[in-house]
Amino acid sequence: MQRDAVVALSSETTHHAQKVLRLRVGEQVRLFNKECGEWLAELTGLRGREGTARCLRCLRQAHDGASEGASEGASECASEYDGPTLYFSPIRAHRIVWLLSSAVELGVSRLVPFRSRYTNAHFSPARATRTLRAAVEQSERLTCPVLEAEQPLCAALVAREERLLFCAERGEAANLRDAIAEHAETRRMAMLVGPEGGFSDAEQTMLRACRSVVPVSLGERVLRCETAVLAVLAYWQAFREGTTTASRRAKR
After folding, report:
1. CATH architecture for segment(s) 80-247
2. How many CB atoms lie within 10 A of CB 177?
3. Are 36 and 3 a contacting pair, CB within 8 Å?
4. What CATH number is given for 6-77 in this structure?
5. In the chain, which residues fall in CATH 2.40.240.20?
6. Bridge-based pairing state of the strands 163-167 and 151-152
7. pTM of the full predicted structure?
8. pLDDT 10s per residue in the chain (252 long)?
């Protein structure tokens, strides 16, 4: 991407700009994606489903710093590229919107929906994709998390490469703080939150038998799925921000 380059907007973006945001030619917007970073741009054309914008100034460079014409002082956002993977079981109605939106805002890089014995909701990849995109725009991320195809729990575990923190409602479990502190630097961390009805005894046994699965406790109370996702990811992000800040201070 270069300064003064004119880019074509997608039909969906053009429609959103005109009908939802009520923007007009000459007004400024911010355009971003993972390849080009984030740019301040001026709308140069809006007609029907076709729109164009001229790039004025780079606000955030892409992760690899490859954006041409980047302004001095443009920041680089790398944290969203090495966020954790979230394994989750589909839940119903507006609650899945909350779960997915929270995951995006709190830095998840990959989402893996799975079906277990007590999963009781249909998963719509198209609806999920729209939710993810809206959350990316709202939170000003440059990238959208990778959304894997839904699969049975056992298949998801076999395909897994990361250290997996299993949010256990009951039974022996490690302290969440200690588990995140121990495994946060692996760059291949994942969290697993169960379905609304919990896991069956057989699924619990299977999870606890995996050597790279670490059962963790989220406290004394039994949380809803979306609340559990919010809790574990918020703690991960707080820990990550704390260690990053400490590292910067040490370098000074």
Report:
1. 3-Layer(aba) Sandwich (3.40)
2. 12
3. no
4. 2.40.240.20
5. 6-77
6. unpaired
7. 0.75
8. 788 899 999 888 898 888 888 999 999 988 877 778 888 899 999 998 899 999 998 888 876 544 455 555 454 444 555 789 999 999 988 899 999 999 999 999 999 999 999 998 999 999 999 999 889 988 888 888 999 999 999 998 887 777 899 999 888 899 888 888 887 666 678 999 999 888 999 999 999 998 889 999 998 888 999 999 999 999 988 887 766 555 555 555
